[in-house]
Amino acid sequence: MQKPDDRYVIDSGYVKQRQYNPATGMYSLEVVQISKVQAKQRAGRAGRTRPGKCYRLYPSMVYHDDFLDATVPEIQRSSLAGTVLYLKSLDLADMDILKFDFLDSPSIESLEDALKQLYLVDAIDENGSITSLGRKMAELPLEPSLSRTLLEANELDCLSQALTVVSMLSAETTLFPAPSKSSEKKRKHTPSNLPDGFGLGDHIQLLQIYEQWYQTDYNIDWCKDNNLQVRGMVFVRDVRKQLSQIIQKIAKGSLDVQTSNRRRNSQQEYRNLRKALCIGYANQLAERMIRHNGYRPLGFKSDLVQVHPSSVLTSDEDGMLPNYVVYHELIVTSRPFMRNVCAVEMRWVTPILAKLEKLNVFKLSGGSSQPNKQIEEVTSTVEKKEIAAIQSQEDRDSRIQAARERFLVRKGQK
Q1: Total-model pTM
Q2: Helix, strand, coil content of the chain in percent (nearest 5)
Q3: Which of 55, 99, 184, 223 shows its CA 20 to 30 Å from the CA of 358?
Q4: Where does the record place the Helicase-associated domain (predicted)?
Q5: Inter-CA distances, 288 with 29, 228, 235, 317, 320, Å
Q6: What CA–CA distance (Å, rounded) separates 25 from 283?
Q7: DSSP per residue over 189-240, as a string?
Q8: Residue 271, exposed/middle/buried by CB under 10 A (0-12, 13-18, 19+)?
C-alpha cells in the first residue's frame, strides 16, 4: 500500500492485468508490460512529501521501443454486455452495434459476444431490438446476467433469496481469503461452522452464509470466527440494501432477508432460485463430458474446464458431478476453472440450446441482413460488369468479322 512518506519505488516494468477472451468467455490474469503512462505514474509515487527515487529494472531502450504510449483501454479487455445493453436502450435510429463509432474501438468478436449474451438472457429479440425485460435490466446497476436473474426470481417468488446471492456475487474481492499457516492450524482445532450449500453449489452456500450472518444481527465477530472478510461482508450488506431500494417498485413480495431451519431433505426450496440463475446466466452454462468430470462451456470454442477446487458442489454415488451447471465466471490460473458453480436441470437448459442454434449476430447488431445484401449487391455489380465486358468483346469480334467479309467481297469484285 502506498504511503505519503514513501521515498523509494522499485519498478519491475510489469503488471498483472485482467483480460477477457470473447472467443472462450474466459477471464485471465496475465502478466504484461506496463505502458509509458504507468511508468511515469510509478515514478511519481516516489517522494511525494520529500525527495525520493524510482529504480527501474529495465533499460531505457525497452521503455522507448517496447512500452505502449498508453494503457490498453478497459473497453478492449472486458466483457461488453452491459455497454451494448445501454446503447440498445437509447433507441438510436439505424444504429448498427458492429459499426458503432467508439472512441476506443473494441474488437468485433467482443461486440458479437455481447450481442449473443443479451439475446440469450432475453434483453434483445432476434431482430436486435431491446425488449421490455432489457429496459428493466438497463435500469439496474448490475451486469446483465445478474439483472436478469433478479427479474426472473421476482416471477418465481424467490426475489429475496436472489437479492442476497446477487449481492454476494457483486463483492469486489473474494469473501474467503487464502488460508495462511496460522489459520490452517486454527482450523485443525476449531472446525468452521459454515454451511455447505446442501451440495447444490456455491450460490446456495453464499445464500446460507449471509442468512447465518443475518441471524447474528450482522455480528462482525462472527465473520472473524469463520474466517470471512469483514470489509467484504459489510460491502455485501450495503449492496443488498441499495438493490432492495431500487427494485422495490417491481417486487411482488417482501425483500427482507428470510431464513428458516432447512434440513437436508428440503433442497426443493432452492429449486426456483437455481432456475432463476440458469435463465439469468444463460450464456454461462456448461455440460459435463461423458465418463469424467470435465465440462465444456455451451456456446464457446473452449477447451475442457474444471470446477474450482474451492467449490462445494458435490458428486453422486458414482463420483460424477451434475450433468449441467451454471457458473459465475471462467478464470485461467494453472488451468481453466469455473468459479461459483451451481447445479441446474436439463429441462431449463433445453430452450437455451434452441436459441443458440438460430442465433444470427448480424440481425442482433441492428444491421439486419445488411452484410448479406451488400455482398449480393457487390456480386451482382461484378456479374453485370463481366456480362457487359463479354458482350462488348462479342460485338467487337462480330464487327471485325463483318468488316473482313466486306473487304473480301470488294477484292473479289475487282
Answers
A1: 0.80
A2: 50, 15, 40
A3: 99
A4: 113-207
A5: 25, 31, 34, 16, 9
A6: 9
A7: HS------GGGSBHHHHHHHHHHHHHHTTS-HHHHHHTT--HHHHHHHHHHH
A8: middle
